[in-house]
Design a protein that fits this description.
This protein has 337 residues and is mostly helical. Helix content is 74%, strand content 0%. The chain has 15 helices and no strands. The longest helix is centred in the N-terminal third of the chain and has 27 residues. The protein is globular. The chain starts with a helix and ends in a 12-residue tail after the last helix.
């Protein structure tokens, strides 16, 4: 089973690489490639949040803390001029994972709404630290000034095409790893914890251990997204760690779908495009975007990819009422990538 899962994951990663590699040859616009980079980074961030919400049943409003910690750690290391890009990336992700382990051990002592508020409270403490520690983080101005991007393995990140391929490649590999995790025995154990924690505990499994592990893994991948954003903009800003960043990730999950692995990526695409085009045409950005999201949620009540998958399964089985076939109200299961 493991070999089949590994082969399936590798196949999806290779297909994604081929598609991403071919896009610059058919898309001449740098603006479109920039949008793809933003979508890829936000999509990875939202999918990492969904590992907690969709697969583990933990609603975290503090996940932006790890997005910001990755961005700041990477930016600070690169500004010293003593680190290579791969080494700084690895150190930033490791430091975020260590921070997540400490926060996770504290937060998983509670559950449900208390867990949510505790993650939010710790994130706001982290955000206040960013603002207050001006000598290190630059305060409300952020970590500006840029940094050098030394060439490694023939990759020159001062070149816009190299940046595109590098960020897209890291995101695809990260998504492949996350996909593999969700389909592994560990991923199915997380679903069991989500669906019936008491029964899992009765079976002798360490529920809190699984929750902490999921928290750390999700934080590590969120920090990868933060590192990539810091690399892309050559800076890090306090809003990376503000609670609205976590809220945006949850919006993306709601728009794209909580029940499918790539649902949050679809949501990231929708929200990024809405942000881009609404901002370009009106100054009443918040009003228009809020109205669109309100109508979307009230009329559809499910993520877009969830609906597509539901109807696809119903079509394959030759039924006319997909709601009777696929129960999405409590069990959360990824059926398609």
């Amino acid at each position: 089973m493991n070999n089949r899962l590994l082969s399936s994951t590798s196949l999806w990663v290779i297909v994604a690489f081929i598609i991403v590699a071919g896009l610059p040859s058919v898309i001449a616009s740098q603006m479109v490639l920039d949008l793809i980079i933003h979508i890829a980074i936000f999509g990875l961030f939202a999918i990492s949040v969904n590992l907690l919400i969709g697969y583990t049943g933990l609603i975290s409003f503090g996940h932006a803390m790890f997005y910001a910690s990755g961005a700041y750690a990477f930016g600070l290391l690169m500004q010293t001029g003593m680190w290579s890009i791969p080494a700084a990336m690895a150190m930033a992700v490791l430091s975020s994972a260590l921070l997540a382990l400490i926060v996770g051990l504290i937060c998983t002592k509670t559950k449900e709404i208390y867990f949510t508020f505790l993650t939010l409270a710790i994130q706001m403490m982290f955000y206040s630290t960013i603002l207050s520690w001006q000598t290190l983080t630059g305060g409300d101005q952020g970590l500006t000034g840029g940094f050098k991007k030394p060439i490694f393995l023939g990759i020159d990140l001062a070149n816009t095409h190299h940046v595109y391929y590098f960020i897209a490649g890291v995101v695809i590999v990260s998504l492949g790893l996350l996909w593999h995790i969700t389909k592994s025995p560990f991923g199915y154990a997380l679903r069991m914890v989500r669906d019936n924690a008491a029964r899992v505990e009765f079976l002798g499994m360490n529920v809190r251990g699984y929750r902490v592990a999921a928290f750390v893994i999700a934080a590590a991948f969120a920090s990868v997204a933060g590192v990539l954003m810091s690399l892309y903009v050559s800076a890090a800003y306090p809003n990376f760690g503000y609670w609205t960043m976590s809220g945006e990730a949850i919006f993306m999950i709601m728009l794209g779908g909580v029940n499918t692995f790539l649902g949050p990526l679809v949501g990231a695409t929708m929200l990024t495009l809405l942000n881009h085009y609404v901002t370009a045409h009106t100054k009443y950005y918040g009003l228009v975007l809020g109205t669109i999201i309100l109508l979307y949620v009230l009329l559809l009540r499910k993520g877009l990819l969830d609906i597509v998958v539901e109807r696809f399964i119903a079509f394959r089985l030759g039924r006319t009422k997909p709601a009777q076939l696929v129960k999405f109200d409590n069990p959360v299961e990824s059926r398609l990538p």
